[in-house]
């Protein structure tokens, strides 16, 4: 973070960086008026902008800040940010659902039953990712790995499709050998390891 949570003074380099970031805020605020936001949503963004500018100006004026002041600012902004999160979630899910519903109309029931979804994304949002939740619910899947595959950080489509092929192959092998499609989606040695580790590392 540019603002390290300490009480020491802030040097010229960091002040320059903060000033550069602050310069980006007024144009961003002006752009809000060009968007089709509801009155309550627009007012919320204005509150966030005003508070952010005030906080940055206070830090620049003092040339220092304390962890307590940073937390007071961030915790104060959290409820407003989470209201934005709720609105963004609804907008994203509505858009995804509309598009998928349109595509589904072009598929036969058999084609739909064979549908597999590959989601490409980074590591951090993997758990509870919005679109993953959507497709798991849509396809009545209990979890990621069968018809819904998360290709973590595989940004090139061929690599993501290779992962899908691996999932399908391992699924068929797990079903054939163990009667469990998902058995090969975890380490084959895992169950034996749990038992043997009780002897290697007894508590």
Could you characterize what this model shows?
This protein is mainly alpha-helical and 203 residues long. The protein has 2 domains: 12-97, no CATH class; 109-192, no CATH class. Helices cover 64% and strands 5% of the residues. It contains 7 helices and 2 strands, in the order ααααβαβαα. The protein has a two-stranded parallel ribbon with strand order 1-2. α1 (12-32) runs antiparallel to α2 (39-62) and α2 runs antiparallel to α3. The longest helix has 38 residues, at 67-104.
Descriptive keywords:
7 helices; 64% helix; 2 domains; 203 residues; mainly alpha; two-stranded parallel ribbon
Give me the secondary-structure topology.
Layout: H1 12-32, H2 39-62, H3 67-104, H4 109-113, E1 117-121, H5 130-138, E2 148-152, H6 157-178, H7 190-200
Parallel strand pairs: 1-2
Number of domains: 2
Biggest sheet layout: 2 strands, parallel
The helix fraction, in percent, is: 55-70%
**What is the count of β-strands?**
2
Spatial order of the strands forming the largest sheet: 1-2
Radius of gyration: 25 Å
The quaternary state of the protein chains shown equals single chain
- Number of distinct helices: 7
Which runs of at least 5 residues are low in confidence (pLDDT < 50)? none
> pLDDT average, as an integer?
91
Tell me the fraction of residues in β-strands, as a range: under 5%
Distance between the termini: 40 Å
The H/E string reads HHHHEHEHH
General form: extended
Class of secondary structure makeup: mainly alpha
